[in-house]
Design goal:
alpha/beta, Spore Coat Polysaccharide Biosynthesis Protein SpsA, Chain A, UDP N-Acetylglucosamine Acyltransferase, domain 1, 11-stranded parallel β-sheet, 10-stranded parallel β-sheet, 35 strands, elongated, binds uridine-diphosphate-N-acetylglucosamine, binds calcium ion
Length: 455
């Protein structure tokens, strides 16, 4: 099968009014990735080398988005929504390029898995002209029914066109199918619109192919594969299924999730074995974690790289560009953005490190702030290896603290500090013996005099 070339035609021209959104339906995200991009990934995993995206509603926005998630896709505009067969034909130019297999998929069915698609393609490799992906939903109402005779698929009947008897059939059309490239265009061109909705139904090619003596079959996939998203409740349902799959995959790959149902992955999260993720952790896009790290509860992490044996959180926020090297530690209520925390460095409490490097083994005291922004531009703070920054220091960038530099607590550091220097950036302390008592007595007698005057 791997030798057969394959084009995936992804239908995404529909409006999706039930999402009640200004954004085209298929751009709504699951695990941070537009649902149609999940469909693209599944198509590619099933061996599709060509991608045709049929767009219509919100075409400009769709084209722009596709540049990002599938720059390799060719887009085709379906001007009027006249049905699924009509939509596939919008990609006629791509289909006529002579692919062996054409996989028709829906942009709003994001949980389709590559295995189900590959099974349909396998049927083409074995000689079928059309292989339809079927499933058995708990409630078949609304789906096209698969009408089989002696192991062959003879027709797909849309709900609105079904007889009472046909409505009792539980085996339904998931919507997606594989069609032999050499037959695809001639079958599609024969589809008419003589049905209850007056649409050109893709599903009609089943009967058309049968009438020509071509072999038509159905494969069976699980319900999730066919879950179409029409509103935000279904979007959340798909997200939940996706997350459950991903958590299980992570655990089976050696990641400990103490309370898996509270950990949220992105489509691209990578975590190494023997890393432990405590409850209520959120991974935004672009997170890579090596093995043996511990992510404590309530951490919010995106665009960050975390090396092995790091310790993060609880309540840490790692933003894009956070790069934690081996055994680095970023503790509670710390925020790190666009900064490297080198090997074994510690940023333990209530700290902001942005646009910076913290050298290996350095220790950043509680409440340290890199003042990286003057309202217009961002500046860099470079903290050398083994430096010690006392609590509640403000490091006003651009500034460099040399190797082994020592910053007194409460400093505002505006000038660079050489290697091994000690810097105080605060007023010197003044202590006046006995003055505290004197002051207290003065305040007390003033208060007594005031009280007496009021009597
Ligand atoms: C379709 C199937 C039905 C199946 C169901 C599974 C047909 C005729 N029916 O019905 O058998 O059980 O999916 O969910 O195929 N689209 C376009 N242009 C159009 C029409 C549709 O791009 O002119 C796109 C839609 O945006 C959507 C997909 O095609 O992503 C499916 O269309 P939809 O109208 O939702 O088909 P269903 O009625 O759900
Ligand atoms: Ca649908």
């Amino acid at each position: 099968m791997s030798q057969r070339s394959c084009l995936s035609v992804i239908l995404a021209a529909g409006e999706g009014t039930r999402m009640k959104s200004a954004m085209p339906k298929v751009l709504h995200a699951i695990a941070g990735l537009p649902m149609v991009a999940h469909v693209v990934k599944a198509a590619e995993a099933a061996g599709a080398s060509g991608l045709a995206l049929v767009i219509g509603h919100g075409a400009e926005e769709m084209r722009k988005a596709a540049q990002k998630f599938a720059p390799q896709a060719e887009t085709f505009v379906q001007e009027k929504r006249l049905g699924t067969a009509h939509a596939v034909l919008a990609a006629r130019a791509a289909i006529s390029n002579g692919y062996d297999d054409i996989l028709v998929m829906f942009g709003d069915t994001p949980l389709i898995d590559a295995g189900a698609l590959a099974a349909a393609r396998q049927k083409l490799a074995e000689g079928a002209a059309v292989a339809v992906i079927g499933f058995r939903p708990p409630n078949p109402t609304g789906y096209g029914r698969l009408i089989e005779e002696g192991g062959r698929l003879v027709a797909i009947r849309e709900e609105k066109d079904c007889s009472e008897e046909e409505k009792t059939i539980g085996f339904c059309n998931a919507g997606m199918m594989a069609v032999a490239g050499k037959h695809a265009l001639q079958l599609l061109d024969k589809v008419g619109n003589n049905n209850a909705k007056g649409e050109f139904y893709l599903t009609d090619i089943v009967e058309i192919a049968g009438a020509e003596g071509l072999d038509v079959v159905a494969t069976e996939a699980s319900f999730e594969n066919a879950l179409g998203i029409n509103n935000r409740a279904e979007l959340a349902e798909a997200e939940a299924i996706w997350q459950a799959r991903r958590r299980r995959e992570a655990m089976l790959a050696g990641v400990t999730l103490i309370a898996p149902e509270t950990v949220y992955f992105s489509h691209d999260t990578e975590i190494g074995a023997d890393t432990i993720v405590e409850p209520n952790v959120w991974f935004g896009p672009g997170v890579k974690i090596a093995s043996g790290a511990r992510i404590h509860a309530f951490s919010h992490i995106e665009g960050a790289t975390i090396a092995s044996n790091c310790d993060v959180g609880p309540f840490a926020r790692l933003r894009p560009g956070a790069d934690l090297r081996q055994k680095a530690k970023v503790g509670n209520f710390c925020e790190v953005k666009q900064a490297t925390i080198e090997e074994g460095a510690k940023v333990n409490h209530l700290t902001y490190i942005g646009d910076a490097r913290v050298g290996a083994g350095a220790n950043i005291g509680a409440g340290t702030i890199t003042c990286n922004y003057d309202g217009f531009s961002k500046f860099f703070t470079d903290i050398g290896e083994g430096a010690f920054v006392g609590s509640n220091s403000a490091l006003v960038a651009p500034v460099t603290i040399g190797k082994g530099g020592y910053i007194a607590s409460g400093s505002v550091i505006t000038e660079s500090v050489p290697d091994d220097a000690l810097a105080f950036g605060r007023a010197r302390q003044k202590t006046l013996p006995g003055k505290g008592k004197e002051l207290r007595e003065r305040f007390a007698s003033a208060a007594a005099a005031k009280k007496k005057a009021a009597e």
